[in-house]
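#lab-general

N.A. 3:47 PM
ok so I finally got the sequence cleaned up, no stray characters, all 280 residues accounted for. can someone with queue access submit it? mine expired

B.Y. 3:52 PM
send it over

N.A. 3:53 PM
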Amino acid sequence: MASQYEGFVTDLRPPKLRHSVMELGRVVLEMGSSALLGPLFKALPRGDGHTIMTIPGFMGADGSTAQLRKFLNNRGYRAIPWGLGRNASQVRSRHLDDFLAHRAATEDAIAARVQAEFQASGRKLTLVGWSLGGLYAVALAHRFPQWIRQVMTLGTPYGDPRGTALYSVMGSLYDNEVDEDALRRWVDHTYAGGALSVPVLALYSESDGIVGSGIARCQGDPQYVTNMAVLASHVGFPFNPLVFALLANYLVEPHERWALCRSERLRTLVKVEPGCWNRL
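B.Y. 4:20 PM
back already:
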């Protein structure tokens, strides 16, 4: 099936070295600041109890998203782990298409769990995917809108993986060969499951130390996609209080959303594409 978007992202500049070097130090600060902002969280809109599945990033397991689930449960949702172990830990490929096949099989496994949760509750799920997990989530939103209410992604590399800090390392798995067609198949797969009909909030950071900002924007139908830059490290996304606040705000109906998300004060902390503020 043809891709649902136009334009293969060509900005392959990796993250700045200083951002990569500072990743671990920044995540410690983000984790600490979450504990300090408890009173702020109390002002956020309450949830409606629907199920939210968190999907970890590359080589991450459910423990990496545990703090995010705790926050979502405290806000009134039913947050559940993906339950599939460490993400992509079994990949032993010599070509990017092998990784793509593993990715497709993983998406099928997630879809089976999403379907079971939907049938058990009778309510659509929200998917929150971190990094590689966000690619799974958006691909599933294109394929299974009957089960998925919305998707939120955190620091997801939507474009050519050469725009990540990890590609030089991962490239050794593929004999350091650059197969442009395989790279395009990898990118196109995210959007190839059918027309998008559910909202996608793609949070990215211009100071991400792993994913370059040139490949960090979702290229799906702009009628449904909101790309938003936030202050976060890549590793810190599932621990960052600003990220938590934006997720909580976007999980509810527009008329219930936090007033500060329409204020000039918050606009100094995030950057949203033109025309998207009316969705906040």
